[in-house]
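[Q] Does anyone have a clean structure-token version of this?
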Amino acid sequence: MRIVYFGTPAAAVPPLHALDQAGHDVVLVVTQPDRRRGRGGGLLPSEVKAAALDRGLEVMTPARAGEVVDAVRAARADLGVVVAFGQLLPGPLLEATANGFVNMHFSLLPRWRGAAPVERALLAGDRETGVCIMEVAIGLDEGAVYARRAVEIDGDETSGDLMARLTALGTALLVETIPGVP
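[A] Here you go.
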């Protein structure tokens, strides 16, 4: 399957690698622009950009997701995959692949739509959370859910620990789910 991949932080790197290793053709990676970080204030690439370049994949870093509509159309991708990209995708972009886009979301929707779902689950004292593979729609986290997996939250778990578990769980679920996406 030809895939365009949208992601930015470290949690989005394992799914990118897994899709590539599963034999999918990742034809384009879109991530946030390089940002100033660290004491020196130098520009540093996102973790996804660094990983994609290491794999020899084509990378784009638009200021706004809508800037890549033509490139995504030209890539003739079957599916777009989003993992913690950090921007909403406009309608014309969602229509630029043959089968739309799916998102790997770090909560059991509809609970904790939007940003920081792991931290929000911990702060709320939730006993359970999980990951969903869902259709990307115009509204925030409002598309159909194709697959979901739940996990119990350990009372001593940090957001980093929980995010690592959810990333592994979601990566496997993503690879398992996307061949059946309509």
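[Q] Thanks! Anything notable?
[A] The chain is about 30% helix and 25% strand.
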